[in-house]
Amino acid sequence: MTDNTGPKARLYKRKAVGPPKPLWEKRTASVSRWLHIYLSMISFVIVLFFAITGFTLNHAEWFDGKQSIQKYTGKVQLKWVKVKDTAAIAKLEIVELLKHNHHIKGDVSDFIIDDNQCTISFKGPGYSADAFIDRDNGDYKVTETSLGLIALINDLHKGRDTGKKWSYLIDIAAIFMTLLSLTGIIMICFMKKKRLNGFILLGIGTLVCYLVYYFMVP
Where are the beta strands (DSSP E) in 90-206? Predict the structure, then answer.
């Protein structure tokens, strides 16, 4: 029988295991792994959303023809619009009336006042509404256009007509995706057995993207 506890055996084990890792290396690897795992969980829905909408944006022509148009008519109080001084036109009251009566969504993008007419445009993701008010009698017509679910999520992806609060979410998503990428790179730096293959694949992916851009993008 061989002695597994002798000086030679202990020396062999020390050589096989190698010197202990520096504390900074252990902490960096641990923090990177923790961030990568929990950022993945927190941002899962956001990242998945932008991945799916990236595909639908790239093939927007597949989802054309889904729009729905509704038309409404009504009347505003004449004193709101039939005034000599256009600054006295009751813009807030008109907008609130239209939103209340016809459940119009989106924010006001334009409020144009002419001699005989007021034109109000509402914009939202995948949505628009235009109101035309006759200043002589207060009658109005509204055309509301909904472009469908795919147009809605595509506009959310682009941050088009979504307001400032949604733009903050886009910024947060960008930060999360950046951190996920960086923590993944940091993690593989501490995986000796997988580090070389990982960086080879990183280089191949980078090269493929460049070649596609160089040879296929006009």
Answer: 107-113, 117-124, 127-134, 139-146
5: helix, coil or strand?
Answer: coil
Inter-residue contact 40 to 177 (CB < 8 Å): no
Provide the strand spans (E) within the chain.
68-75, 107-113, 117-124, 127-134, 139-146
Q: Which amino acid is at 10?
A: R
Do residues 185 and 28 make contact, with C-beta atoms less than 8 angstroms apart? no
| Surface-to-core class of residue 116, CB atoms within 10 Å of its CB (0-12 exposed, 13-18 middle, 19+ buried) | exposed
pLDDT in tens, 41-72: 888 888 899 999 999 999 888 877 678 999 99
Question: Do residues 76 and 141 make contact, with C-beta atoms less than 8 angstroms apart?
Answer: no
pLDDT value for 102: 94
Structure pTM? 0.75
